[in-house]
Amino acid sequence: MDIGTVISVVLNLLAFILTLVGTYVMVKGIDADEHLAADGWGSIKYFTVQSNLLYGIYAGIFAVIELVYGSAAAVPAVLYILK
Known about the structure:
Layout: H1 3-28, H2 32-35, H3 47-69, H4 77-82
Helix pairs in contact: 1-3
């Protein structure tokens, strides 16, 4: 793997992990009184939250494809469009 692919995989994994952490914090309602407009599953109703979840899922998919094939060129064009 070249350095560009390694950086891409690291950043995609970071985005995926931070999406999981952010979703967990929102659903569990950690510090919800101070920071969140809604807690629990009610926070998923906001479009910004939904788009962040979708981005995190695609980042995870990109990372897996890049790790398996060793190149960002292996990612199908349709995934770039969806991302």
